[in-house]
């Protein structure tokens, strides 16, 4: 048995870090789909989903009855194992019903962002080749060129049925399940979801996740929150998009296995979010860092106007929180624990987390390795695995790591090695207590005269400036030095901060090669739904004038 350090989880003999969290049990039976796995779990919950704006509720028995009916209706439409079904919808209490029904047949769910353009959606359709789409009447125009049979979601759907609209979700949910329908054997290795990664550093790719990946994710989520041991009913507010791995993992699949209630916001709006906490007794609030910062900056007005007494924890993912944000939140909302998480679409949203207030005080950390996960820190230059407190690319291995990228063997080979290690593309180190710290995206490092400059380091420094609200740092091409750091800065209201003021502020505090040599002021920094900066958009903006 290899010797593993009790604090860090590091094993010298194979240069691997092992999770120090309690491992979660995974089912051994191969013939098992994630929907059956979730529905078979016994729990004491009553209300599964609540629509935040209308108050409409679905009990757990409503959900499972609907899943059975919709699965049966899809089977009657000829949907079979391996078929891809597209879901284009804002957050809704019906989103999980579509996902669970499709996956129960061994068919594959692919989701897309309702804000995507028709062109972007057509690209995903051309790549994933769905045989049917679920969408709302508002979003039908975005599927106009697809010729896909469409199932309409929403109360106004029944009046709109035409040849192209083959049914409505409401009709499907009311259908008597066919007891004689063909039930195909679905194994844990079969594909369950085809989610398109955010593409913050390049073209979006279809991530293939198996039923095994999702089952392991469900077990990890339940283990993390220890919901099954909790006699009190816990209520989560779904503030993040369900089409995204963060939303799909927790709210459309993970939490329904635990008996917790999920309150669904159809779109994010901060006042609606804050009102819903008091209205529905929300105990867990998932956020991305910019929203947490807004809660800190406006704490006095928020606490005077909204009832937040039920709130026990905020769950923050997407990017590490600064010390200022963490301390500021703990000071302004003293009864509320911050829990952070790190994961990728490629790891089914699982990777690392802080699970207590004490762990979150390890400022800047993404947390400790999740249950059943292993990690390596690999020197990008030499490929050598590194020990504690050394920075390199984080590699992950475990039961939630994807099968690969859809129809893209080159991208799969460059991301997954032959033994199942996932190259995350994140530069990290793991400290002597097993906490992971994300330094930057490997592909986003700025190469200045051969020196490597991490944008996140400069961004953290800029955010300490009293007149800067938000910022992003990108590589700007230069024929003499290769690239130099350029900053996009959002000034605070009333600020007259100049380009020189920004550059001088940074140059006093960093080595010469890290200095910012160009500044542009901007109204807001473009970010994806999980709060990550869309650097490629800013690089395009900066270089379009060259």
Automatic annotation (TrEMBL):
GO biological process: phenylpropanoid metabolic process
Domain of life, per lineage: Eukaryota
GO CC, alphabetical: peroxisome
InterPro entries xrefs: AMP-bd_C, AMP-bd_C_sf, AMP-binding_CS, AMP-dep_synth/lig_dom, ANL_N_sf
Alphabetized UniProt keyword annotations: ATP-binding, Ligase, Membrane, Nucleotide-binding, Phenylpropanoid metabolism, Transmembrane, Transmembrane helix
Ranges for domain AMP-binding enzyme C-terminal: 457-532
Pathway membership, UniProt: Phytoalexin biosynthesis; 3,4',5-trihydroxystilbene biosynthesis; 3,4',5-trihydroxystilbene from trans-4-coumarate: step 1/2
Residue stretches making up the AMP-dependent synthetase/ligase domain: 39-406
SUPFAM superfamilies hit by this protein: Acetyl-CoA synthetase-like (SSF56801)
CDD domains in UniProt: 4CL (cd05904)
Stretches that traverse the bilayer: 243-265, 277-296
GO MF term (any one): (E)-caffeate-CoA ligase activity
Family matches, as Gene3D superfamilies: 3.30.300.30, N-terminal domain of ligase-like
Pfam families assigned to the protein according to its UniProt record, in alphabetical order: AMP-binding, AMP-binding_C
UniProt-listed PANTHER family: LONG-CHAIN-FATTY-ACID--COA LIGASE, PEROXISOMAL OPC-8:0-COA LIGASE 1
Similarity-based family: Belongs to the ATP-dependent AMP-binding enzyme family.
The name this protein goes by in its record: 4-coumarate--CoA ligase
Lineage: Eukaryota, Viridiplantae, Streptophyta, Embryophyta, Tracheophyta
